[in-house]
Amino acid sequence: MTVTGGVAIVGSGLVKRFARDKKESITALDGVSFEARHGELTALVGPDGAGKTTLLRLVAGLMRTDEGTLRVLDLDAATQPQEIQNRISYMPQRFGLYEDLSVQENLDLYADLHGVSVEQRQERYPRLMEMTALAPFRERLAGKLSGGMKQKLGLACTLVRSPDLLLLDEPTVGVDPLSRRELWEIVSSLVENEGLSVVVSTSYMDEAERCAHVVVLHEGKVLADGVPSSISSRARGHSFIATSTQNESARALQARLIDREDVIDAVPQGGRVRAVLRAESAQSIPEATFEPAEPTLEDGLMLLLRQQTNAKPAAGAAIELADKPAPDREQVVIETHDVVRKFGDFTAVNRTSFEVRRGEVFGLLGPNGAGKTTTFRMLCGLLPATSGTLLVAGADLRTARAEARQNIGYVAQKFSLYGDITVRENLDFFAGAYGLRGARANERIDWAMDNFELSNRAGAATGKLPGGFQRRLAMAAALLHEPQIVFLDEPTSGADPLARREFWRRISSLADHGTTIVVTTHFMEEAEYCDRIMIQDAGTMLAIGTPDEVRQQAADESHPVATMEEAFIAIVEKSRDQVRAKDAA
Amino acid sequence: MNATLHRILILIRKELIAVLKDPRSRIVLVLPIVLQSLLFGYAATFDLDKVAYALLDADRSGASSDFMARLDGSGVFHRVMNLNSASEIGDAISRKRALLVVHIPSDFERRILSGQGATVQAITDGRNSNTGGTAAAYVSAAVERFNADWRQSHDGLRSPLTIETRAWYNANLETRWNMIPSLIAALSMLQVLMLTALSVAREREQGTFDQLLVTPLRPTEIMVGKAVPSILIGLVQSSIILLLALFWFRIPFQGSLATLYLGLILFMSAAVGIGLALSAFSATMQQAMLYTFVLLMPMMLLSGLTSAISNMPTAMQYITLANPLRYAIEMVQRIYLEGAGVTLLFNDMWPLVVIASITLPTAVWLFRHRLV
Amino acid sequence: MSGAAVQAPLSWRRLKALVTKETRQLVRDKSNLMVGLFLPVVLILIFGYGLSFDVKNAPVAIVTEDTSPAAQDVVAGFYLSPYFSAIPLTSMQTARELMLKREVDAIVYLQSDFSRQLAAGHATVQVLVHGVDANRARVLQAFAQGAIGQWAVKRAAAGQSGSAPPITLQTRLWFNEANNSTHFLVPGLIVLIMTLNGALLTSLVMAREWERGTLESLFVTPVNTNEIIIAKLVPYFVVGLAGLTMCLLAGKFLFHVPIRGSLLLIIFISMVYLLVSLSLGLLISAATKNQFLASQIALVVSFLPALMLSGFIFDLNSVPAVVRGISRVLPPTYYVEALQTLFLAGDVSGLLIKDCAVLVTAAVVLIALTRRNTRKVLG
């Protein structure tokens, strides 16, 4: 067992460059110096492209530094990578599961490779199965798991043994709040009880807040470094909770605030809006009241980014849309009735009925494998329902004429535009596929380029662009034909806090102009942007209503719930307890 | 209708850009075609122009050297060894020093002069019985000529019968003449099948197929949009081979280009239909590639490219009826070498139309029913 | 690179885990088994029953404008010969049409004054062959000459001609007395199947791991490169041996190809060649990291040479020096030579030692190169 308090990783002056093409090279790390101590959780945070993944790969001995020295567990990362790899565990961002092996076979493979003994497995496996809730799926092929379950299996494979150092690269992307909580409990207990040293990169600031040490990276440099409170305290006096005096929705207030120069950050929270202001008072902002609030790490980070790099969340993200006659917000545009979808014996979606009205932002929430993606695919006509009716813009897209699909836009969970052609060519193609041509097509493409900040890389091969850019492009492509309804499947999964605000600012603009939005997400605070949400688990609808209504439904007399995340966990756990009770009876 | 056409054109353009953009894939589309054409053109020949032989002349007489002079003078036979005894024959052949041993017996001259006739042995290496047989046939021809001349000069007799042989369409009987035109169909099919099968499998694997399906594009439109670029690329590849045949190998073209391209379009449509249907069975690119290959090998072997179909057992001949390449090779050869017109090619063209009109709608049907 | 040079010893447990993983992956993807096991069966059947260079029952139009017995006598050989299926015609016009439609491969033409000419001491028989398939045409020409030659022999025997021909040629096809092309195709087929298994299947395996990102997780374990490479070779090696067994059994019991050399030697040299072809596939895969590219390259550098340049179908003596030079540096050439010798000729030590030496060297070099190209480093 390693000694707590010593240093697990020491990096100084680390520089790593990548060749983009023959002439140009990108500096991913530009003189990074940092330390991670034994027996502690160290978080790497920062926006996309900050260099978090590159840094972890260097530590894991998968890449060599161009300059600087890196010692991991007192070994030199440049010359002793194998010795390091014998002692660490690493979970890459995209964990390479073997999709043609079953859950159990994947686990066994990594247990064998790490030399985990049979006794250790007997102790370890049940815990991992409990944490990941994968026990019922042991025999299932990894390729047939949902995105979030794959992520959990990847984590389980990484945790088959207790290494001397654990590296986790965004381990909770696409993982639902329940599993996320379980996962962090496991990691924390490994740190507390076994003195494990962990380095984790994350874009969830509440996760970073649990760590003993936070390193903030930005564009390959260290912006700040210290205990979480040292970063959140920077926002002390700047954090407020805002309430509208205008009877506007939290989303509308948030949009209004975040567009202002004197507001550094704004996110909806519990029906109100959390704001970080430039000044330490809020007199200048009309039509809202402000109460001071305890600063969070996210507040501190946003302030830091703004001060040091002038990065402003959602700057220019409000998209311009042509004025249209005020939409009839009472009109029902999506209607499902007793929809059931079975795969063999397995019921993925069970008797689900709901309606969505024009201009609504409708959120689909649920744990991994709850049936969200299946519901989504049925709505988009990609999958036939086993029984029940679905009407989208008045038609069942599965059987309707092709023109009915003109009314919808679809952004898949995984980036699915053509990677081998350029940004402009992708837009040209989708404009054409939706029947836009000539001057009209050019006009819409210009609109997309401007409003989604795509112009500067219009000629670049799409597959080589960073994730954030690809997400913007995918959304732009789905909006070219001005659809009535837009479906977005986990659009913010893996996105950094800046990108998430940008995304929601755009959604707000669209909804204001009468576009109906159906969205799934694992960020419960994002449910606060929605007009109404629906919570599903195991294919069944558990709750539906406005965020306030859902919070109230979750709250019982004994403990009130404050955040959406708490509400979500309460609702899902209650339902699962009932199911278990019923099974037992 | 107009909207349909526009959507299809957009899809075709995207496919072409995606294929032709990457310099690596451009190389993959052109270089193997050229390399293989050259390789097949030079290496794939059954014609022997150098037969290494060993001579065991036990007679060493005027007649025997007269006979050998004919072999050596033919330009085909190259004497690599002179053997002294029959016991050396085994070694010369089994160690592959010579393909052929000519054994002249010790009583050769005596028997010829006495009118009894002598027997010359030609022993060839049968490990490749094809080459061995050809070499023996060359010796046999030399013997025939010797006999005729000998009779004329010694007996004053003309042989009662002259056999006059002529070969149509390929006067010098060069293998290359039938090989290269066949490649115009065979090589481009190889790539077209793989390209088509992969283009759909890639979309499935990368998730872009769903994105395509939520647009107003109909399955039929998607299929046409996938088929046309493959056909176009196939035609370009065929043209490259055609140019090599015309200007590098200088094989005279007897037919009409219009007929050739008409035939090729029919053939490519049939091939693309097979590729699209294959892709519907493949969840990944790897599967698409391997399945294509599993299908390609028998198609190539049972096409008449390397061995004549009429030589095959009847059951096997029936199987070849479903092979579009069989018709295409025959068709291209007939257009190229024989100058056949459309009317003569009817029997090769209608099966292609039938195959295309089965595979293409099947592919559309599979598109629709593999969405689950 | 000092770090890479230090190799941890192989761990049997890790190796076993990796081999199990590779085997499961191989077995679960039907497309692998299609290429590894189903395709060999199809090829065996095609090569054994379908492909043949032996001309039999070739349709020939016999045009005899002269119906005299003498003329019928001359062409009688065609009706009896197993090589031809003779179609008697009286009009050259019809024969030409048949040839044009490719319904006959050759025309034997006896003009109307044939018997008169013959009586006068000299007549001419025309043999017109369809020359597009040059090889077949040549064989047909020779057979046609033979069929007509029979007449001359008969006449000589009947004492009608002056004397026997000065030279009679007696040909012997050593190692393949029956002149059966299956005998040389089966060894060639083994080469093809070994190459296919090896290069095509393994060219995908490493590239697939790169494309799917599975290597990143695998690298950060105690696994070393040797273990990764060995684990990838083992299952495909077994599939290759299964293919070899099928071919040997089919060759022996279905096609009755003689095995004149040592069976053990055949198996040994096949294993060595299998290693050559597997490691070539892995090398391509590791170097390209892209499945499509890898499979294309594998086809061009391993499969085509095995088919075209190995002397398996086409004789290497007649190809231009450059092409022959290329074929001399390619391992399949030596494997073909060794197999044809072992099957049909026997243990010709001088030749086999050379072939083995070349193949072993190739295997060692390719494995070493693969080893160099597979490093536990990204990007």
Automatic annotation (TrEMBL), chain A:
SUPFAM superfamilies, alphabetized: P-loop containing nucleoside triphosphate hydrolases (SSF52540)
Organism domain of life: Bacteria
Family annotation (Gene3D superfamilies): P-loop containing nucleotide triphosphate hydrolases
Domain ABC transporter: 9-244, 334-563
InterPro entries registered for this protein in UniProt: AAA+_ATPase, ABC_transporter-like_ATP-bd, ABC_transporter-like_CS, P-loop_NTPase
UniProt GO molecular function: ATP binding; ATP hydrolysis activity
Family annotation (Pfam families): ABC_tran (PF00005)
Keywords linked to the UniProt accession: ATP-binding, Nucleotide-binding
Name of this protein: ABC-2 type transport system ATP-binding protein
Protein species of origin: Povalibacter uvarum
Taxonomic classification: Bacteria, Pseudomonadati, Pseudomonadota, Gammaproteobacteria, Steroidobacterales
Automatic annotation (TrEMBL), chain B:
Signal peptide residue numbers: none
Membrane association type: Multi-pass membrane protein
GO cellular component, as recorded: ATP-binding cassette (ABC) transporter complex
Principal location class: membrane
GO MF, any single term: ABC-type transporter activity
Domain ABC transmembrane type-2: residue ranges: 139-370
Record-linked InterPro entries: ABC-2_transporter_component, ABC2_TM, ABC2_TM_bact-type, ABC_2_transport
Membrane spanning stretches: 27-46, 179-201, 227-249, 261-281, 288-309, 349-367
Protein name: Transport permease protein
From TrEMBL, chain C:
InterPro entries (alphabetical): ABC-2_transporter_component, ABC2_TM, ABC2_TM_bact-type
GO-annotated cellular components: plasma membrane
Domain of life (superkingdom): Bacteria
Alphabetized Gene3D superfamilies for the sequence: abc type-2 transporter like domain (3.40.1710.10)
Subcellular localization(s) per the UniProt record: Cell membrane
Pfam families xrefs: ABC2_membrane_3
Family: Belongs to the ABC-2 integral membrane protein family.
Name the record gives this protein: ABC-2 type transport system permease protein
